[in-house]
Amino acid sequence: MTSTATMATASTTAGPTFKTIATPTASELLFADDTSSKRLYWDRSFYDSIETQKRVLAESATLYVGNLAFSTRTAQIRSHFAMVGKIKQIHIGLDRHKKTPCGFCFVEYYDRASALSAVANLSGSKLDGRIIRVELDAGFHPGRQYGRGRSGGQVRDDKRATGRRGSQSSLGSNNNSSDHYGPGMKRERENPAVEGEQTQGSSAPDESMEQSAKRQKME
């Protein structure tokens, strides 16, 4: 069974037009035969089975968004995801030590249909020059805004950095760059035990993720 939702499409006349899009149910997304279309993440740290998590996800209107550029602004995220529904809140992921953005966020909608539509239609879309991943999430809780990696960011950042150092060593490379990401490298989702920062609705539209994080830290 599928539900339907609307998504804005470009228009050269008086504003955007909307078309009806078939939106897969949570179960269909989770058990899709084609793994490339699988958009549900089983968080084994919090749920003993997929069925347990599905009971929570069945009412969730929250999304996990990965592979964001660190410089992506909250206003850009809001504009992109507002194409499929009205957004309630945005939570930005932070480096645990630096308190700066580290490449992911949570988006909360007012209704579940909008969240499902975003998974079906916005995952794989381009935002601020990067191809993003959009997955259903059981919901944001305080404390999830901080990365679990030893470096303070996401766990997979550490794994990639370690892998690159090993590769460089085997090749006799002297490149000691501290950049966590090479050209075109994607950030993969880690276990979301601690991710996301709440972005208040009063944030300035042109405020960057990093500026927002610094402002909240000062407050």
TrEMBL record:
Compositional bias per record (Low complexity), positions renumbered to this chain: 164-178
Molecular function GO labels: RNA cap binding
GO annotation, cellular component aspect: nuclear cap binding complex; nucleus
The RRM domain, residue ranges: 61-139
Region annotation Disordered: where it falls in the sequence: 142-219
Database matches in InterPro entries: NCBP2 (IPR027157), NCBP2_RRM (IPR034148), Nucleotide-bd_a/b_plait_sf (IPR012677), RBD_domain_sf (IPR035979), RRM_dom (IPR000504)
Main localization of the protein described in the UniProt heading: nucleus
Keywords from the UniProt entry: mRNA processing, mRNA splicing, Nucleus, RNA-binding
GO BP: any one term: mRNA cis splicing, via spliceosome
Entries under SUPFAM superfamilies matching the protein: RNA-binding domain, RBD
Intracellular or extracellular location(s): Nucleus
Entry keyword RNA-binding: yes
Protein family according to the UniProt entry: Belongs to the RRM NCBP2 family.
Name of the protein in its database record: Nuclear cap-binding protein subunit 2
